[in-house]
Every structure is written in structure tokens, then in C-alpha cells.
Write a structure and sequence with these properties.
By secondary structure, the protein is of the alpha+beta class. 27% of the residues lie in helices and 46% in strands. It has a single domain, classed as 2-Layer Sandwich (Alpha-Beta Plaits), CATH 3.30.70.1150. It is built from 2 helices and 4 strands.
């Protein structure tokens, strides 16, 4: 098991739609979510911690869900 942190930057107005897709896909594996306010350009930041078997496999799933959004990926711990 790995705990990974995903830092998502997306338009503040669209975050509800995208987050509902993430929760429906990874619902039981979410450990923590942090919401940060938008910058002057209207881009908000969301940090999600997930518990997954293989952190690398989650990247392709996120690319499908976040078609226009940017995200970074970091492995916090491995068990």
C-alpha cells in the first residue's frame, strides 16, 4: 500500500464537477482533502491524499478525469 498526494490545480468554478468524479472513482481510498482558495486568476488548488496499491497506475486514471486540469503527484509513504 502507498499513500500518495495529488496536487490538482483547476478553475475554481469547475472544482465541484471534477471533485465529484474523483470521489466517485476513488471514494473509499481518500484519506484527506485540503482545499486552497483561488489565486487572482481564478485557479484553485486541491490536495488529495489517497491510499492505493500502485501509485503509478493512478496517473492514467487521473489524466482521463482531469482532461484540462494540471496535477502533480507525490508518494508520501510505502507500506
Amino acid at each position: 500500500m502507498q499513500i500518495v498526494e495529488i496536487d490538482i490545480k483547476l478553475p475554481y468554478k469547475e472544482r465541484g464537477v471534477i471533485l465529484s468524479k474523483i470521489v466517485s472513482k476513488f471514494g473509499g481510498r481518500i484519506k484527506d482533502i485540503h482545499f486552497h482558495p483561488p489565486d487572482p486568476k481564478g485557479i484553485g488548488e486541491v490536495r488529495v491524499e489517497l491510499e492505493v496499491e500502485n501509485g503509478k497506475s493512478i496517473i492514467s486514471e487521473l489524466k482521463r478525469l482531469l482532461k484540462g486540469g494540471r496535477f502533480s503527484f507525490r508518494i508520501l509513504s510505502e507500506a
